[in-house]
Amino acid sequence: MMRKLFRAARARFSLYILTPLFSHCFNPLCTLYFNFVFFPFRQAIKFPLFVYGWPKLFSQFGRMQCDGACFPGMIKLNISDSQGPQYSCGNTELSVWGKIIFKADKKSDHFEIGSGCRINVLQNGEFVFGANSKIGNYCNITVYSKLILGEVSRIAHRSQIMDSNYHYMADFNNKIVKRHCAPIVIGSYCWICNSTTVTGGAVIPDKVIVSSNSLVNKDMSDVPEGAVIGGQPAKLLRTGVRRIENKAFEKVLNDYFAHNEFAHTYEFDATLPESICDIDSNDKIG
């Protein structure tokens, strides 16, 4: 009995003392400043952006705006994730010369930008951020022209999304110089796994998983939903795979594997629809 109480006390000490102590805390001063610097006044007074820690700000020339719903704390900037695969308290750096648009339809929608990131939106750049999407720790985002990140998409730690290489190159064989930037489109329910690079002109369709350490440098619109792509450059690896975003389904899986420690797989009914994986799915699990 005493052993169980001691273990419970240690767990609570870790959760409620150590984790908050070494995590980025809510910063009311930066929250006040960032909202009134970047957002239109009617949105700024609602404080849609909550800032954590001390992110570095290299430009306040640009703008941010909510497209649709706007409510307190819907956007979390420089937040630490102690349960993530890469925990960091490094501060995110922002250089906003262009525009960042947060698209939300309802008050349950949210956005997260992790710690240690570098987000650079150039003067004519536009970053469209879909609802319930997340940028993990230590990601490098450069928007020279346009970046669209669909709803419920994830960019995992140490990935870089860059629509420009900043430099022109002269092709003396064809006597041409190409534009050094091109828009990037990442669909909804995508999962860009860690250490992946996505470059200008890339198109990733809805519900596609990009495996770790991949390079996506072209339009992959012909890839079907539920596909896994990967490699350098990325190519189709498999189909019929979805990341599970449904919390109820996750709970069923966690309970199953917790009570079946030697099980490697969970078998589900063949009639279960793929929509069971969606964040707001109403499908019955079984």
What structural category characterises the helix and strand content?
Answer: alpha/beta
Main pleated sheet: 9 strands, mixed
Q: Radius of gyration, rounded?
A: 21 Å
Oligomer: single chain
Count of individual helical segments: 4
Order of helices and strands: HHHEEEEEEEEEEEEEEEEEEEEEEEEH
Question: Can you give the helix content as a percent range?
Answer: 10-25%
Written account of the structure:
17% of the residues lie in helices and 29% in strands. The chain is of the alpha/beta class and 286 residues long. The strands form 4 sheets. It has a 9-stranded mixed β-sheet. The chain has a 7-stranded parallel β-sheet with strand order 2-5-8-11-14-19-22, with no helix packed on it. The longest helix is centred in the N-terminal third of the chain and has 20 residues, at 2-21. The two termini are 36 Å apart. 36% of the residues are buried.
Write a concise keyword list for the protein shown above.
286 residues; alpha/beta; seven-stranded parallel sheet; 4 helices; globular
Secondary structure topology:
Blueprint: H1 2-21, H2 28-38, H3 41-44, E1 49-51, E2 56-59, E3 63-68, E4 75-79, E5 93-96, E6 99-104, E7 111-114, E8 118-121, E9 126-130, E10 133-135, E11 140-143, E12 146-149, E13 154-155, E14 160-162, E15 170-171, E16 176-177, E17 184-186, E18 191-192, E19 197-199, E20 203-204, E21 208-210, E22 215-216, E23 227-230, E24 235-238, H4 247-259
Parallel strand pairs: 1-4, 2-5, 3-6, 4-7, 5-8, 6-9, 7-10, 8-11, 9-12, 10-13, 11-14, 12-17, 13-18, 14-19, 17-20, 18-21, 19-22, 21-23
Antiparallel strand pairs: 15-16, 23-24
